[in-house]
Design brief:
Its EC number is 2.1.1.107. It is an enzyme of class 2 (transferase). It is a single chain. By secondary structure, the chain is α/β, with parallel strands linked by helices. The chain folds into four domains: 114 residues, Cobalt-precorrin-4 Transmethylase, domain 1, CATH 3.40.1010; 125 residues, 2-Layer Sandwich (Methyltransferase, Cobalt-precorrin-4 Transmethylase, Domain 2), CATH 3.30.950.10; 116 residues, Rossmann fold (3-Layer(aba) Sandwich); 129 residues, Rossmann fold (3-Layer(aba) Sandwich). It is built from 20 helices and 20 strands. Strands 3-2-4-1-5 form a five-stranded parallel sheet, sandwiched between helices. Strands 6-7-10-8-9 form a five-stranded mixed sheet, sandwiched between helices. Helix 3 crosses helix 4. The two termini are 55 Å apart.
Length: 502
């Protein structure tokens, strides 16, 4: 059976601009051939067994040429695979989509095109520049900036462009001076407003405004780099009134989330809402215990416990999953009191249909010990289901108070799937601005991904943010400078501390 190829536009950078159909094509792909400029967050949606094939230029690596890309599309489709070709922007707007579609058509391979948001529209929009306005203009022309304006037999009708209200030049930074001089010589007013938007919709977005006569010098002075979109026309003057993304508090910040993928989504959405770009780099993963017999034995006699102490959402979820597998429900806990560390943990318990009897004001083990003194724990049976690498201070202090503690591993923390090569690339290019840690294990595992001799250099300009004092202490012991330590030891508290610092 022959497969099928989907040519999908990923948009210009912001992963939120992917279409619903484009996202479905990523999820359904057997093979994902992607340009390395697309957001790594989009790649996270691919299936675990999807074959990932990078096809764009990456620092220190050779690019896959056009012939090889076409050959790969044909090869995998003829092998019966569903192939998604993921490229930046829109595949049919200054992309290679038409060439790839023709190559597939010649081989009789079914192909669908899934349009993407083109940078020609998105970059100006994120800079606060409309392409049209009812009172200012009613025409737009999008032009390649790659062609030399002074070449013989140009395909661009320069004299006709003079009367177009808005001109959008794509990929024309190297020819910007020639473009402006060519338009002025054709009769365009030298005082026509111009804006150049660098890497629109990403944290590297930067905008310079001027006129046809002045913009080249201003772009040089500002150090604007490729890729960039140039907008020429009077709507560029609306930017000062309509700019919006630069005014968000986390604009320009790429923030690394070191949590497991399944726990990162909420944090990532909050960062995006505030204008930042989350980069999910899971340095730990949460899995079932390799030996579940201690947990199973505890659940078999769970009715005998006077207290069950939950220290994390993971502990709650894995404990109740094990209860369900043992065919036990919450009625078994009718006589037990429940302690939860932190509001998120308490909320997870309550979702299971139980009320929390005690939650300490401070979300650390030491506060639990202090607060439970009033409950008279001597002779009480306490069940403590938690991580395999948890600190021992809690069970030790409870036993000193006379409690009969049974500590069982509800889940194990293992090394996560974050790609160290991608991490090194971002750090080396200065494209990571904040690294967040939510546990001591995230600190240790993150640093294990870096070359030890380069860690200080790579992190020297990076803001280190920790969820609480225990995590911060671990970070400092491992040689990191902690810039942010949340006062409330939750994700909300961590985000609030980052906002305050920035």
């Amino acid at each position: 059976m022959i497969g099928k190829v989907y040519l999908v536009g990923a948009g210009p950078g912001d992963p939120g601009l992917i279409t619903i159909k484009g996202l479905r094509c990523i999820k359904d792909a057997d093979v994902l051939i992607y340009h390395q400029s697309v957001s790594p967050r989009l790649l996270d949606y691919a299936a675990a067994d999807c074959l990932m094939v990078p096809a764009g230029q990456a620092p220190g690596k050779d690019a896959m040429n056009a012939f090889d890309i076409n050959a790969n599309l044909v090869h995998y489709a003829k092998a019966g695979k569903t192939v998604t070709r993921l490229n930046a922007g829109d595949p049919f707007a200054f992309g290679r989509g038409s060439e790839e579609a023709l190559a597939l058509a010649e081989e009789g391979i079914p192909c669908e095109v899934v349009p993407g948001v083109t940078a020609a529209a998105a970059a100006p929009a994120y800079a606060g520049i409309p392409l049209t306005d009812g009172t200012i203009n009613s025409s737009v022309t999008i032009i390649t900036g790659e062609e030399d304006p002074y070449m013989e037999k140009s395909k661009i009708p320069w004299e006709q462009l003079v009367d177009i209200n808005t001109l959008v030049f794509m990929m024309g930074l190297k020819n910007l001076e020639k473009i402006t001089l060519r338009l002025i010589s054709a009769g365009k007013d030298p005082e026509t407003p111009v804006a150049v938007v660098q890497e629109g919709t990403t944290p590297e977005q930067k905008t310079v405004s001027g006129t046809l006569a002045s913009i080249t010098g201003m772009v040089r002075q500002a150090g604007i780099k490729h890729p960039a979109v140039t907008v020429i026309g009077h709507t560029a003057n609306l930017r000062e009134q309509l700019r919006w993304v630069e005014d968000k508090p986390l604009f320009g910040k790429r923030i690394l989330i070191s949590r497991p993928v399944h726990q990162a989504a909420g944090f990532a959405e909050m960062i995006e809402t505030l204008g930042g770009e989350p980069y999910i780099f899971p340095v730990i993963d949460i899995v079932k215990p390799s030996d579940s017999s201690p947990l199973d034995n505890a659940i078999d006699k769970v009715e005998q416990f006077d207290w069950v102490v939950f220290t994390s959402v993971n502990g709650v979820n894995h404990f109740f999953r094990a209860m369900w597998e043992k065919k036990k429900d919450i009625r078994c806990l009718a006589e037990a009191k429940i302690c939860a560390i932190g509001p998120k943990t308490a909320a997870a318990v309550e979702k299971k249909g139980l009320l929390v009897d005690y939650m300490p004001e401070e979300y650390v083990a030491e506060a639990v010990i202090e607060g439970m003194k009033d409950y008279g724990l001597k002779g009480m049976k306490v069940l403590l289901p938690r991580a395999d690498i948890a600190r021992q201070v809690l069970p030790e202090k409870l036993m000193e108070m006379g409690a009969l503690v049974e500590e069982v591993t509800a889940y194990e923390t293992v090394t996560g799937s974050g790609d160290p090569d991608k991490l090194l690339q971002l750090l080396s290019q200065g494209k990571l601005h904040v690294v967040t840690f939510t546990s001591s294990s995230t600190v240790r595992n993150f640093l294990s991904k870096l070359p030890r001799q380069r860690a200080d250099e790579l992190l020297k300009d990076v803001i280190i943010a920790c969820i609480g004092p225990i995590t911060a202490e671990t970070a400092r012991k491992m040689g990191l400078t902690v810039h942010i330590e949340a006062e409330e030891y939750t994700i909300d508290g961590l985000l609030a501390a980052i906002l305050q610092y920035i």
